[in-house]
């Protein structure tokens, strides 16, 4: 798989590139936001994943993520030292598919890269049936992966849609955290639980329906069908 590593620290990039190469990745190193954007022009794109460090010298990493998302659907994994929920939600809202908080374990990083790329490949290979889920003002179009509330489109990231679509399959039924992580992230790695929490918070905020997804303490989550 081709991977675009956006990292301004040459020492960090060299060490990480060596590790990724040993695991079968063809790494292209971009040292700035501008280099990354130039590497992602449609004519030469073909990267399986973009690994985006937010501490770039020329542009804000969040801004770069937004620009990347406008020109390609390539999955983006943010790398950041910011561990607060608001920062993570902001990154997800800009189109990031996942994030890794520094300092990170190499095994964790590799697991997230594989999970994101595996999920993307499955989406590309799997055909969708013509199904629309309606829950009060919420409308979920599974074939086109579009969501709207009261007729207004709500843009969601890939993982946000997958999570919402999963819960909407059986409103009122509790999905265990392990089950959600397995089906949405295609992994059993325990650290993904924090990512799940952030995606749930992001969905509540984007849909402006905080009561739609209920947390079942110690178990998981369930979608509460709106009334009226």
UniProtKB/TrEMBL annotation:
A UniProt-annotated Pfam family = Trans_reg_C
**Every OmpR/PhoB-type domain range:** 130-225
For this UniProt record, give its keywords in alphabetical order, as a comma-separated list.
DNA-binding, Phosphoprotein, Transcription, Transcription regulation
UniProt cross-references to CDD domains, sorted A to Z: REC_OmpR, trans_reg_C
Name this protein carries in UniProt: Sensory transduction protein RegX3
Where would I find the Response regulatory domain in this sequence? 2-117
| Positions of modified residues (4-aspartylphosphate) | 53
């Amino acid at each position: 798989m081709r991977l675009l590593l956006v990292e301004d620290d040459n020492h960090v990039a060299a060490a990480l590139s060596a590790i990724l190469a040993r695991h079968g990745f063809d790494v292209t190193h971009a040292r700035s936001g501008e280099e990354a954007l130039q590497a992602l022009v449609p004519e030469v794109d073909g990267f399986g994943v973009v690994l985006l460090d937010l501490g770039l010298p020329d542009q804000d990493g969040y801004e770069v993520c937004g620009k990347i998302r406008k020109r390609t659907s390539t999955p983006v994994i943010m790398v950041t030292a910011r561990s607060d929920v608001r920062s993570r939600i902001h990154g997800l809202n800009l189109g990031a598919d996942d994030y890794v908080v520094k300092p990170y374990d190499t095994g964790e990083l590799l697991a997230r890269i594989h999970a994101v790329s595996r999920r993307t490949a499955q989406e590309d290979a799997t055909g969708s049936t013509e199904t629309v889920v309606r829950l009060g003002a919420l409308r979920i179009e599974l074939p086109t992966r579009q969501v709207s509330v009261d007729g207004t489109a709500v843009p969601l990231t890939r993982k946000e849609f997958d999570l919402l679509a999963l819960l909407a399959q059986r409103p009122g039924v509790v999905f265990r955290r392990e089950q959600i992580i397995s089906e949405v992230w295609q992994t059993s790695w325990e650290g993904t639980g924090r990512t799940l929490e952030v995606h749930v918070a992001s969905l509540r905020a984007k849909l402006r329906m905080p009561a739609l997804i209920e947390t079942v303490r110690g178990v998981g989550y369930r979608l509460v069908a709106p009334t009226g």
